[in-house]
Structure formats: C-alpha cells, structure tokens
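Title: Comparing notes on inverse folding

I've been comparing how different people in this forum approach sequence design from structure. To keep things fair, I'm posting one structure and asking everyone to reply with a full sequence. Here's the target:
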C-alpha cells in the first residue's frame, strides 16, 4: 500500500485517478466476461507438434454487467490491495445463457499505471469456466489464460484474446482446448450454433456440417490465428510453416504477384525490420471448406510501434485466403490483400473500417 501523505491537491488528484480507474476497470470487466462466454463452435484440431488430439472451441459473446463494487483500502485512492468486484449476465441472441463474475486486485503501482491480478468464473449450462490474467490499466489488448472448469469444461485450457478494450468496437476471440472429447450434448450444441452463424454453416450437408468439415475448419482457423501469433512475435520461421512452397500472393505492395514462400516472407520483411512491437488484428473471418480446398475472407489491420518510438495505427485491409490440403495438412496456396480504389483520384481508400 502506498503510504506517502499528500496535501489537498494530492487528494483531488487521487480522487480523479480513482474515478478513471473505476471507469477503466468497469469496461475491462465487461470485456473479460465477453472473453469467457459465448456461442460455441466445437471441433477437433491437431498438429504435428501436439502429442495428442484435442477439442477446440471458439467463443464469442456479449455480456450485460449488473453489479460492481470497490473495496478501497486506506489511503483513499488506488493503493496495493484495492479490490474491484463485478458480475454480469451472458447474452446470446437477446437471451440470458449464463452468469459470471470475478475480482481484480491491485498488485503494483507505477505512477498512474496500475497492475491488477484478475480472476473470473463463468457459469454456463455445460459447467463453469475459469480465467486468469494480469491487466495493466490503459492497455487496449489482453490475453487471459483459461485455467480450467467443471462439467463438460473440466479439461478446458487455452487463451482468450481481445482488442479495442473500453471502446465501442471491443472484439474477442477465446480459444478453448480440451484434452478429451466433448459430450454428445456439447457437440450437438456446437453444430446448432455453427448452423445459426452464417460464417461457419457454409458447406453443410443435410442441415449439419460433417464432422470432418468441422475438424478441417477448426484447423484452418487455427492456422489463420498462427499468422497473428507469428507477426506479433516477429517470427518468420513460424509463418513459413503456414504457406505452401508454391504460394501465389497478390499482396498490397509491389510486385504485382509474388510466387513461392520465400517471396511471400519477403513481403513481411519491413514489419520485422522497422517495428519494435506489432499488433495484428483480424475480424469477420468467413470460411467455406471442401474436401481438399477451402477459401475464406476477412478484414485485417497491422499496427504497432516503430523502433524510433512512433506509434502506427495502421489501416484495415481486405484479405482473401485459399487453402489447399496436402498430405493431410492445410496450407495457404494463395492470398490477396487489398483496399478499395478511389477511381477519381487513383488512390487506395485507407481510412475505412469494418
């Protein structure tokens, strides 16, 4: 706990910081609940580096916060040990499908920057789900570790990643891995949700997507997620594993086309060279999956901080992927990145948002 004494000006300043922290944490809690609860899409996925096959669920959700309280230890204002408690209702298609809540405790203070340890528990029909993370006040993106659960979620592990914290465009993608298969009820629920969400229902036969298609789509979504991981880690070798050796890429920069995986990786060289830190976002990924060919489209944005400290907000681009399944492995055989063209000026429209 911070023990230094402040005059009346300091009291007002601490009150202002306290109010700002309360607003930020309230918004953060809403997003945390979002990350832990939502419509489920359950499928098998596995890769060569994983010793055993796992189940994967992708969670996306909205939440309505209804209770919030703060335990403000002396002195008044942010101090070590302060605890923020919250709860909310999970909403899907306008209906309540669960409840959850948790708490965050201040564990470190550096000026106006507060670090909190956050624990969340969500209670759904299939069981409970727990998450944990550190959160630094003011940060706009966060990964929360999914640490376990009960019922059908008893083997849950994974990560909940979300962006644009405390903005109207908050977005979340939570990936849960299971070491054992889901129950028949969970799989049935997953298929019904997939059918209700147009982005994942394409390719269905007789009203339900075949099990193999479910597994293939999960694997492709995992591969697309690895693009984000590879870029943010500035790891070209991990990216190389995602592309076919003969990939044809229509990138947003010259040349007109790049052929081969080495040429594709060369397009990412400026990112690795000039950026100190990288954030890569993707929204509205939609896939259509066949037996050995699949295609998809999404919006993506690359932003970050240059090595000279300059912050780059980036621009939203349109991304199209074509996947080819070779020897049981889905690889990107073609991609295209573009922005709309303003015919009158001959310039690309780089200020549009999804």
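Reply #1:
Here's my take.
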């Amino acid at each position: 706990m911070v023990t230094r004494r402040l005059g009346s000006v300091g009291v007002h300043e601490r009150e202002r910081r306290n109010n700002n922290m309360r607003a930020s944490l309230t918004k953060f809690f809403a997003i945390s609940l979002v990350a832990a609860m939502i419509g489920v899409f359950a499928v098998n996925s596995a890769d060569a580096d994983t010793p055993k096959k796992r189940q994967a669920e992708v969670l996306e959700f909205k939440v309505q916060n209804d209770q919030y309280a703060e335990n403000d230890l002396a002195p008044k204002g942010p101090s070590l040990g302060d605890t923020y408690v919250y709860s909310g209702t999970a909403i899907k298609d306008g209906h309540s499908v669960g409840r959850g809540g948790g708490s965050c405790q201040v564990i470190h203070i550096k000026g106006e920057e507060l670090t909190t340890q956050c624990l969340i528990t969500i209670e759904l029909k299939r069981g409970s789900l727990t998450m944990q993370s550190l959160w630094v006040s003011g940060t706009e993106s966060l990964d929360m570790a999914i640490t376990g659960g009960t019922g059908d979620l008893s083997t849950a592990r994974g990560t909940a990643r979300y962006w644009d914290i405390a903005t109207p465009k908050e977005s979340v993608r939570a990936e849960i891995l299971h070491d054992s298969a889901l129950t028949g009820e969970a799989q049935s629920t997953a298929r019904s949700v997939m059918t209700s969400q147009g982005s994942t229902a394409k390719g269905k036969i007789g009203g339900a997507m075949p099990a193999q298609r479910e597994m293939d789509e999960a694997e492709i979504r995992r591969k697309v997620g690895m693009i984000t991981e590879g870029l943010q880690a500035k790891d070209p070798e991990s990216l190389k594993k995602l592309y076919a050796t003969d990939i044809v890429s229509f990138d947003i920069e010259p040349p007109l086309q790049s052929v081969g995986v080495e040429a594709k990786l060369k397009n990412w060289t400026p990112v690795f060279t000039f950026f100190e830190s990288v954030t890569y976002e993707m929204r509205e990924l939609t896939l259509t999956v066949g037996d050995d060919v699949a295609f998809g489209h999404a919006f993506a944005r690359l932003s970050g901080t240059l090595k000279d400290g300059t912050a780059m907000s980036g621009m939203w681009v349109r991304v199209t992927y074509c996947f080819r399944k070779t020897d049981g492995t889905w690889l990107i055989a073609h991609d295209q990145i573009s922005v709309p063209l303003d015919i009158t000026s001959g310039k690309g429209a780089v200020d549009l948002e999804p």
